[in-house]
Amino acid sequence: MSHANTLCQVADLDDIKDEIVGIRRHIHQHPELSFEEADTAALVAARLEEWGYAVTRNIGGNGLVGTLRAGGGARSIGLRADMDALPIHEETGLDWASRKHGTMHACGHDGHTAMLLGAAKHLARTRNFDGTLNLIFQPAEEAGFNSGAQKMLEDGLFDRFPCDAVFGIHNHPGVATGTFMFRSGPFMAACDTVKIRIVGRGSHAARPHLSVDPVVTAASLVMALQTVVSRNVDPMETAVITVGALHAGHAANVIPEYATMELSVRSFKQDVRELLEQRIRALVATHADSYGARAEVEYLRGYPVLVNSDAETEFARGVAAELVGEENVIPSFGPIAGSEDFAYFLQQRPGCFLRVGNGQGKPMLHNAGYDFNDENIPVGAAYWTRLVERWMPVKPG
């Protein structure tokens, strides 16, 4: 079958679909947590080398880049897939369910890796592009802090593997399989974590007047924190403060010495992000003081806002419309309050992070019942292939 100088169609991946689905399910059965992806990386590297890629290992930990050059063109592109799993015990009951207790691919990174491998194999056999292709297989997207993207950049990712632009895909449950979603500008939120320790004075439960009760202080603070978004952030902006953890005491008849809280704080603009930190720090300190307690605050900056560049997003959208039709493209999808460390790549290079539907009525991400939809593998692989063919087209003749 000849593929020369013809743009990739989804059907062109039919002959390798079973192979790539098999790889996906193998990865799913053998999940590895952030910074532990050695076996996954070894599998990916072996396949890429088998197909003719130059592979560079151990970038930012278990990260690797597969490079393929065709023609003499000066243009270059980076395509990224993440490889790590989550500390969740799988409850799908599938034949290919995780064999590692307490660890599963609950976010679809096994599928992201498989889609990019499918494109890798097809591009290696067609070489229908003119330039340099860099396939970035990234570890530790789920780390939250000091993540795989940061570590790869610290290892000189874009200096060692120049990319004119960089692109990434994430699956999206709740939207029909094969539907592509795009958004220019801020698309996914910055995510910060706040750890608060409220220090009071313990006492017997029958003598509360001798205590400084950190439980009462913390309970009141939970409610007070809700006013930061409603009364300090412009109502035209988006922000979230969630108190996800609150711990205090061990017995009903003891007022404890301290209570601890953890917050997840999300925003889409840097000035809003700064405002949230300022107001949270001030409110926690003064609120604790008003109860006679003391507060210790650890404010951990997580991933920044993911900002898609306009031109590259429009380019990526156009490729999707060509491949699957305008009716299967959402050109201006709403912002997503989840965070994503691909944002660090987009701070260094123009590009686009897009979503592809994982099926309606399917379990959400980070859910014990989640599974990546294998019908996306040929669609995603064909999309990546055509994106490369359009970005670095072979000159006629």
List keywords for this structure.
single chain, alpha/beta, Aminopeptidase, Alpha-Beta Plaits, 24% strand
> How much is the average pLDDT?
97
According to CATH, what is the topology of the largest domain?
Aminopeptidase
Strand content: 15-25%
Number of helices: 10
CATH superfamily of the largest domain: Zn peptidases
Mind summarizing the main beta sheet? 8 strands, mixed
Helix content: 25-40%
Q: Name the overall outline.
A: elongated
CATH class of the largest domain: Alpha Beta
User: What's the helix-strand series?
Assistant: HHEEEHEHHEEEEEHEEEHEEHEHEH
For the record, the count of structural domains works out to 2
Rg computed from alpha carbons, rounded to a whole number of angstroms: 24 Å
How is the largest sheet built, in terms of strand order?
A: 1-2-4-3-5-16-6-15
Task: Give a description of the structure.
Mn(2+) binds at residues 107, 109, 142, 170, 366. This protein is an alpha/beta fold. It has 2 domains: 10-187 and 305-391, Aminopeptidase, CATH 3.40.630; 190-302, Alpha-Beta Plaits (2-Layer Sandwich). Helices cover 34% and strands 24% of the residues. The chain is built from 10 helices and 16 strands. The strands form 4 sheets. Strands 1-2-4-3-5-16-6-15 form an 8-stranded mixed β-sheet, sandwiched between helices. β1 (54-59) and β2 form a beta hairpin. α1 (17-29) runs antiparallel to α3 (109-126), α6 runs antiparallel to α7 and α8 packs across α10 (376-391). The mean pLDDT is 97.
Topology:
Blueprint: H1 17-29, H2 38-50, E1 54-59, E2 63-70, E3 76-82, H3 109-126, E4 131-138, H4 148-154, H5 157-160, E5 166-172, E6 180-181, E7 185-188, E8 190-199, E9 203-204, H6 214-232, E10 239-248, E11 254-255, E12 258-267, H7 270-290, E13 294-301, E14 306-308, H8 310-324, E15 329-330, H9 342-348, E16 351-357, H10 376-391
Parallel strand pairs: 3-4, 3-5, 5-16, 6-15
Antiparallel strand pairs: 1-2, 2-4, 6-16, 7-14, 8-12, 8-13, 9-11, 10-12
Helix pairs in contact: 1-3, 3-10, 6-7, 8-10
